[in-house]
Amino acid sequence: MTADSAIFAALTPSAVEAVGLGKWIDDRPILREINLTIPAGQYIALVGGNGAGKTTLLKILSTLIAPSAGRLIVAGHEIPRHANAARARLGLVSHQSMLYRDLSARENLEFFARLHGVPDASRRAEELLTRVGMIDRADDLVKTFSRGMTQRVSIARAVVHEPDIVLADEPFAGLDANGALAVERMLADLHSAGKTIVLVNHDLTQSLRLVQRVIVLRGGRLALDQPANIADAADLSSTLAA
């Protein structure tokens, strides 16, 4: 972490605090000695080559899997001891939409809103479907949607309970230019609203354009951590390949 980001972290409440974080699967190290602080409200990109540990780290942050070593606090809650409390403040956009294909967009959002105890599920679903540009298809079944339309509803699902932290694993995968732009705008809106966003994205140029900070994983370790405005896609590519 640079001196500037260290000062920023000291002044801003942390969304994530990881110390000595590690993960082993079948005695094979996937993550090693991850020390990471993410201030609340920061938009970061987590990048790395295949097998670098990006998705594993995101799964740990989302409480889907437990770390093997180290200390982790997410949204003020120790993981895995208080994982349920942390989940209430997390929103996850993953490779899978996590939507029920035989339900409509509206029915999906209302279901997840009720699951999270949102007081007026119908109003919240209507609000989000309008926001993501899907209100005209609100009552159509998810299985009739294109990849881009499904992704928009999936992001609405992820934020239906107004989480403080949004974890997005390759949210642009498979999208056309218009769909990618729509998702970019939605993530930007969430960041403007003060949400912490952790983005896993293979497109380095796109990531540098969107985020405030870039963290590079290589071989399960932190290889680079710097503000996006001083990073360069070519330099990052070299770091990934080293």
SS element count, helices:
9
- According to CATH, the homologous superfamily of the domain at 1-89 and 196-242 is P-loop containing nucleotide triphosphate hydrolases
Average predicted confidence as pLDDT: 88
- The CATH architecture designation of the domain at 1-89 and 196-242 is 3-Layer(aba) Sandwich
Uncertain residue ranges: 1-11
Q: What does the overall shape look like?
A: globular
Q: What is the share of helical residues?
A: 25-40%
Specify Rg, calculated over alpha carbons: 18 Å
Total number of β-strand segments?
10
For the sheet with most strands, the description reads:
6 strands, mixed
**What's the helix-strand series?**
HEEEHEEHEHHHEHEHEEH
What is the CATH third-level topology name of the domain at 1-89 and 196-242? Rossmann fold
Distance between the termini: 20 Å
Strand order of the largest sheet: 6-7-8-3-9-10
CATH top-level class of the domain at 1-89 and 196-242:
Alpha Beta
What would you note in describing this structure?
By secondary structure, this protein is of the alpha/beta class. The chain has helices at 3-11, 54-61, 83-87, 105-115, 121-131, 147-158, 177-192, 204-210, 233-241; strands spanning 14-25, 28-39, 43-47, 69-74, 77-79, 90-93, 165-169, 196-200, 213-218, 221-227. Strands 6-7-8-3-9-10 form a six-stranded mixed sheet, sandwiched between helices. A four-stranded antiparallel sheet has the order 2-1-4-5, sandwiched between helices. Strand 9 (213-218) and strand 10 form a beta hairpin. Helix 4 packs across helix 5 (121-131) and helix 6 (147-158) packs parallel to helix 7. It is globular, with a radius of gyration of 18 Å. Residues 1-11 have low confidence and may be disordered.
